[in-house]
């Protein structure tokens, strides 16, 4: 993810030992005792990476618990993001005076079935994808970009964002994606001036699709 984010953001990617690392008590309390092994490993790798990203930022590596809505709770003055998928995990952190929000997502590089495609993409996005070069599951890239957009959006605005609320354009030459956001539900949320666009980066290899984005302070 280092290649996808600006230098103000610190990044840590899990190594082989991190999946079986130690949680801090506040993190363990969020995971609970009944978590299945795969969830325990994902959650643990995420927290080990989160604390490593904090250290690289020069702030104490405190616990990063989960809020009731499952979003990670970063220490005051810090924003961050966590992703994990099948053997890959990364976390990123930045200071709030430099970055307003950061999000990233990793997904397996695979085709998506018609039902999932309908759920996540707008017809015009599928028209765009059909015109992009072959050899890449653009559906997986679109899906990952939208999950990154949600991770950037939710900590700032505090509301749900439907997959169809963002119109994403992918540029394979630059590796940039741009999203115009038109939220259908801002129900009762104190949302002064929610972001109307999100720009991020994507990268694709044989196994993995990665996306990341930041919002800068206004
Ligand atoms: C929250 C969500 C984006 C997570 O994505 P995912 O591909 O399922 O899983 P990832 O491994 O990449 O990310 C999981 C991490 O996201 C973080 N996360 C969860 N909820 C979050 C939120 N509301 N805001 C920011 N980060 C969140 C957590 O750190 C979580 O890991 P943890 O539970 O171990 O702490 C996804 O589950 C979801 O709810 N999507 C629907 C909303 C959406 O994407 N809309 C599209 C708008 S265009």
> pLDDT below 50 for ≥5 consecutive residues: which ranges?
none
Helix share bin: 25-40%
The N- to C-terminal Cα distance equals: 24 Å
CATH-defined superfamily of the largest domain:
4'-phosphopantetheinyl transferase domain
State the total count of DSSP E strands.
8
The average pLDDT score comes to 94
Listed once per kind, the bound small molecules are: coenzyme A
User: Number of folding domains?
Assistant: 2
- Number of helix segments? 5
Strand residues, percent: 25-35%
Rg calc: 17 Å
Q: Can you summarize the main beta sheet?
A: 5 strands, antiparallel
CATH class of the largest domain: Alpha Beta
Main structural class: alpha+beta
CATH architecture of the largest domain: Alpha-Beta Complex
The main sheet orders its strands as 4-8-7-6-5
> What letter string, H or E per element, gives the SSE order?
EHHEEEHHHEEEE
Overall shape: globular
Under CATH, the topology of the largest domain can be stated as Ribosomal Protein L22, Chain A
Key terms for this structure?
globular, 8 strands, single chain, 2 domains, Ribosomal Protein L22, Chain A, binds coenzyme A, three-stranded antiparallel β-sheet, alpha+beta, 218 residues
Description:
- The protein has two domains: 2-99, Ribosomal Protein L22, Chain A; 105-215, 4'-phosphopantetheinyl transferase domain (Ribosomal Protein L22, Chain A, Alpha-Beta Complex).
- The mean pLDDT is 94.
- Strands 4-8-7-6-5 form a five-stranded antiparallel β-sheet.
- The protein is built from five helices and eight strands, in the order E-H-H-E-E-E-H-H-H-E-E-E-E.
- The protein has helices at residues 25-31, 37-57, 114-120, 123-131, 138-157, and strands spanning 10-13, 78-85, 88-95, 101-108, 166-171, 176-181, 197-204, 208-215.
- By secondary structure, the chain is an alpha+beta fold.
- The longest helix has 21 residues, at 37-57.
- Strand 5 (166-171) and strand 6 form a beta hairpin.
- Bound molecules: coenzyme A (COA).
- The site of coenzyme A (COA) has 24 residues, from helix 2, strand 2 and helix 5.
- Coenzyme A binds at residues 42-43, 46, 66, 69-72, 82-85, 105, 146-147, 149-151, 154-155, 161, 163, 165-166.
């Amino acid at each position: 993810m280092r290649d996808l984010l600006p230098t103000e953001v610190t990044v840590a990617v899990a190594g082989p030992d991190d999946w079986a690392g130690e949680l801090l008590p506040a993190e363990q309390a969020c995971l609970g005792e009944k978590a299945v092994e795969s969830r325990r490993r994902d959650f643990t790798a995420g927290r080990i990476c989160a604390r490593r990203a904090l250290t690289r930022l020069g702030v104490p590596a405190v616990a990063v618990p989960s809020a009731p809505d499952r979003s990670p709770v970063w220490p005051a003055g810090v924003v961050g993001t966590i992703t994990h998928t099948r053997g890959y995990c990364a976390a990123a952190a930045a200071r709030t005076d430099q970055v307003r929000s950061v999000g990233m997502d990793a997904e397996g590089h695979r085709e998506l079935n018609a039902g999932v495609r309908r759920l996540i993409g707008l017809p015009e996005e599928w028209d765009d994808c059909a015109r992009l070069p072959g050899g890449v599951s653009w559906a997986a890239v679109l899906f990952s970009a939208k999950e990154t957009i949600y991770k950037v959006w939710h900590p700032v605005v505090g509301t749900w964002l439907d997959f169809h609320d963002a119109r994403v354009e992918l540029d394979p030459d630059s590796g940039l994606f741009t999203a115009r956001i038109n939220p259908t539900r801002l129900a009762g949320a104190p949302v002064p001036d929610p972001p109307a666009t999100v720009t991020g980066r994507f990268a694709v290899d044989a196994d993995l699709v990665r996306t990341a984005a930041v919002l800068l302070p206004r």
